[in-house]
Design a protein that fits this description.
mainly beta, two-stranded antiparallel ribbon, 25 strands, disordered N terminus
Length: 507
């Protein structure tokens, strides 16, 4: 990973556009993939279940930076990027951007400003579309992504904004929160580190609590409130456990929810309220476990590491009682199973998700919040959505797994089955006759452009076959997507005061 420099005077850096939060993004230019691979191969003391695509966070996590908050000085990171896509295939895990044109160009210019403990991030972004396959005009879009302002002090971060997030060990489609939809507006506090004194033997801990709202247009409740909480524990470097909770509440025209119920929903549903006038909330909880064995570090074997993970969740919370004591319980069960193996430059991933509880619907269909945990119709978590199953596999290769200056190639495929559930009544589920099935095959590659520090060129192609689209009988079609990205890395630095330069991070 490239080094970043901070000086007591002023430093300007121009570099590459941001990678998405997806853990296996082929166009990752922040060094996140390399750092994750090193953590797995070498069994490092590092939590991997809540990545943030933030250069300062990447530099500080794990306590690897030798700088205090004020020694960071002032610096600016500017990351311009160009992205072109062709075809009618719709990408997933793309920050909500569906690339609606037959030809869709986009420009971005991410900017990060740091002054001691303070940080401001903003990514102005513009795209348009031409030759829409259905003949309709495509409007241009000007937006600001990854917009966040706050402070970092030690292992603590406090701020507000919107940024792509990804909770849990899943590499293709987590249950709670991913970068599949437009990120919500959230503000709050996060902290990571070890407890002091003898308690440090308990392992590494991370906690986060954010409160905000879903700002995209909806047809149920306008701008409902959203609370996101995530707790992670690394008792030993080979084992990570996590709990993620998301809560919908309030919104325009809705009564405020009781704070006590928001924190601990012992009465998550309101009964005998046919007009839906009383306060209500919708809950989603996911628990996960990841085990990674660094075999190459322990044994004389070509296998660097083997990893397995499981995420278990409920899209609804129901009240139960232990004697006379009420307590919340999960309903609407879903699971994600996955694993990975890395052998030198080759890595293999597999994952299966099943969200098929038809009584308590995933993401949609709640009593008041019918659109549930979605933005613009896209689930905030697993892209398959409600009543779906997805199987996915990936084989990746790169010349040096621990270097950002390496050639990367990946071949992947997934299959998604969606069931059109009409309703559930008297323990019977009524569905549409036709199921939607989709098969996708993709190939991607990324390479540094000569002489190795001027940027990175990436490209990919996806072939897709869909039957029963939108549950319409007798429909079938092929879809294609070609994308090309050129990311600029014009890293330069200059000390206006001639002060001593310190390395902020260099794994």
């Amino acid at each position: 990973m490239r080094a970043m420099f901070a000086v007591p005077s002023f430093v300007i850096l121009a570099a590459m556009p941001p990678a998405a939060a997806s853990p296996l993004d082929i166009d990752d230019t922040s060094g996140q993939v390399e750092a994750d691979r090193a953590a797995r191969d070498q069994s490092r003391d590092r939590l991997l279940g809540a990545p943030i695509d933030d250069p300062l966070v990447v530099a500080l996590e794990g306590g690897e930076s030798p700088l205090t908050e004020w020694e960071r000085g002032a610096w600016v990171l500017v990351e311009p990027g160009l992205h072109l896509s062709f075809g009618d295939g719709v990408p997933e895990n793309n920050g909500g951007e569906e690339e609606p044109g037959g030809f869709t160009p986009a420009l971005s210019a991410r900017t990060v400003f740091v002054l001691g403990p303070a940080e401001v991030r903003a990514t102005p972004w513009i795209r348009t579309g031409f030759v829409n396959p259905d003949g309709a005009a495509v409007d241009g879009l000007l937006d600001v992504k990854d917009l966040w302002a706050g402070i970092h002090v030690g292992g603590l971060a406090l701020g507000f904004g919107r940024q792509d997030r990804w909770f849990g060990p899943a590499r293709h489609g987590p249950l709670a929160l991913s970068d599949n939809a437009v990120p919500p507006w959230l503000g709050g506090l996060s902290g990571e580190g070890r407890l002091p004194w003898v308690f440090s033997k308990l392992g590494r801990l991370r906690g986060e609590l954010e409160v905000g709202w879903l700002g995209e247009p909806r047809v149920d409740v306008t701008a409902p409130g959203l609370m996101v909480g995530d707790v992670r524990w690394l008792p030993v470097p080979e084992v990570e456990l996590g709990v993620t909770r998301m809560t919908l509440f309030g919104g325009q025209g809705r009564p405020p929810v009781d704070v006590g119920q928001l924190l601990l929903p012992t009465e998550p549903h309101i009964y005998d309220d046919p007009d839906q006038l009383l306060p209500d909330q919708d809950e989603l909880v996911a628990l996960d476990l990841r085990i990674c064995l660094p075999l190459g570090r322990w044994l004389n074997t070509p296998v660097d590491h083997v990893e397995g993970y499981w995420q278990y969740g409920g899209e609804d919370v129901i009240a139960r009682k232990l004697g006379s004591l009420p307590y919340p319980s999960l309903a609407g069960v879903a699971n994600v199973y996955g694993g990975a193996i890395a052998v030198g430059p080759v890595s293999v991933n597999a994952e299966f998700s099943r969200l098929m509880d038809d009584t308590f619907r995933w993401y949609v269909g709640h009593r008041v919040y019918h659109e549930g945990f979605t933005q613009d119709g896209r689930p905030l978590g697993n892209f398959g959505g409600t009543d779906s199953e997805t199987a996915w596999g990936r084989v990746g290769w790169q010349t040096d797994p621990l270097s950002p200056q390496s050639l990367r190639v990946a071949l992947w495929a997934d299959k998604t089955r969606r069931v059109g559930v009409i309703e559930s009544r008297n323990s019977k589920v009524f569905t549409l006759e036709t199921e939607e099935r989709r098969w996708r095959l993709g190939v991607e590659a990324s390479v540094p452009t000569p002489p190795g520090r001027l940027g990175r060129a990436s490209a990919g192609y996806t072939l897709e076959h869909i039957t029963g689209e939108d549950f319409v009988p007798g429909t079938a079609r092929m879809a294609h997507r070609v994308w090309v990205s050129w990311t600029f890395d014009l890293t330069t630095g200059a000390s206006l005061g001639g002060a001593r330069t310190k390395v902020l991070h260099d794994p």
